[in-house]
Write a structure and sequence with these properties.
11 helices, 2-enoyl-CoA Hydratase, Chain A, domain 1, seven-stranded mixed β-sheet, single chain, about 280 residues, four-stranded mixed β-sheet
Length: about 280
């Protein structure tokens, strides 16, 4: 049984794997990495399970926000090094095995911004290498004061090239490169200063604060959030002029919705909007 946040309305859903536990609280789905014995490493099995669960939730109109949390001392220690060493020992498909692992991980990280629901990382402990990549790939992140973040593969002779993709898009370029070439960890306040996490709270309040943020987002019009999230990431890929054009298209589509008109009219009439259930 999880010792983290558990509201009276919370319902636990059975999963195909104990690697990840799912707990629903109203419109919020909370996925908990549950492999503390290896610091919630992103093994091939963990990657596949998380990808499948996220993809499934992405089609569920009843879920408006997703939280990714973890059990144990670490949020996620990156790839499973023992599994990687075992793949290397196979001369017939060692490189192919590595390619499949990194491709699966890359697909997982790229899935998160395509989901209609905002995804919040709830970081209670260390997040390193691909674990730091996971935090950087989430739309939002809340961290406990004791959490630490790093991409320290360089200490093992392995530059964290794939984690660098997400990290360099979440924090300033020079800060990301310094982390990558030194292997140094940053604490939660520094991660907040750099923009890797949104909020830093006491460990005893981490789950509650993350859920508060999730619930706040869950009260917003789901269609507007989904359209806005998609447009947000699309415009980041464009130059400024093209970004404004893409953003304008999103705004027009949003404004044409009946429920958006209701939201604006409710504001003008100083009342709560009456949005149809989706």
């Amino acid at each position: 049984m999880l010792c983290a946040y558990a509201a009276p309305s919370q319902q636990r859903k059975a999963t195909m794997s104990d690697l990840i536990l799912r707990e629903d609280d109203g419109a919020v789905a909370r996925l908990v990495l549950n492999s503390p014995e290896n610091y919630n490493a992103l093994s091939a099995e963990m990657i596949a399970t998380l990808y499948t669960m996220l993809a499934t939730i992405g089609t569920d109109d009843q879920v408006r926000v997703i939280i990714i949390a973890a059990t144990g001392k670490a949020f996620c220690a990156g790839h499973d090094l023992r599994q990687m060493q075992a793949a290397r020992a196979n001369p017939d498909n060692g490189r192919a095995g590595f390619a499949a692992l990194f491709e699966g991980c890359s697909q997982l990280m790229q899935l998160i911004p395509t989901l209609p629901q905002p995804v919040i990382a709830e970081v209670q402990g260390v997040a390193t290498a691909a674990g730091c990549q996971l935090v950087a790939s989430c739309d939002l992140a809340v961290a406990a004061k004791a959490a630490r973040f790093g991409v320290n593969g360089i200490d093992l002779g392995l530059f964290c090239s794939t984690p660098a993709v997400a990290l360099s898009r979440a924090v300033p370029r020079k800060s990301a490169f310094e982390m990558l070439v030194t292997g140094d960890f940053i604490d939660a306040p520094e991660a907040h200063r750099l923009g890797l996490v949104n909020r830093v709270v006491a460990a005893t309040k981490l789950s509650a604060e993350t859920m508060t943020l999730a619930r706040q987002i869950a009260t917003k019009l789901p269609a507007a959030v989904a359209m806005g999230k998609r447009g947000f990431y699309e415009q980041l890929a464009h130059e400024t002029a093209d970004a404004y054009e893409a953003a304008g298209d999103t705004m027009c589509a949003n404004m044409m919705r009946h429920d958006t008109a209701e939201g604006i009219q409710a504001f003008l009439e100083k009342r709560q909007p009456e949005w149809a259930a989706e």
